[in-house]
Amino acid sequence: MRVGFTASRKVGGAVERNRAKRRLRALAAEILSVHGCDGHDYVLIARRETVHRPFADLRQDLLRALKRVARPG
After folding, report:
1. How far is CA 66 from CA 2, 25, 55, in A?
2. Contact 48, 57 (CB under 8 A)
3. What CATH number corresponds to the domain at position 19?
């Protein structure tokens, strides 16, 4: 499984973009190692809210997105 991270300038300055990507990396290590599918590629895209959103909410967002992607058909 491969994971990519992206944060555009719309997220904020370099400090905010780096913080957002660090938070996404921590989520990926925690969630994708358990719920991710081998052989799939994932790209986590930081948004402006990623920097300030509570980590528990980000975790739920990622889990919800994985469930949506895993739906058959």
Report:
1. 15, 16, 17
2. no
3. 3.30.230.10
**Beta-sheet strands, E only, within 1-73:** 2-6, 41-45
Please write the tens of the pLDDT for every residue from 31-63: 998 988 888 899 999 999 999 999 999 999 999
Q: What is the dihedral of CA 23, 14, 50, 27, to 10 degrees?
A: -20
On whether the CB atoms of residues 22 and 58 are closer than 8 A, the answer is no
**Quick one: the chain helix, strand, coil %, rounded to 5?**
60, 15, 25
Note the Cα 15 to chain centre separation in Å.
18
Range of the domain at 21: 2-70
The owner of tokens 């990507």 is 21
Give the number of domains in the chain.
Answer: 1
Mean pLDDT of the chain: 92
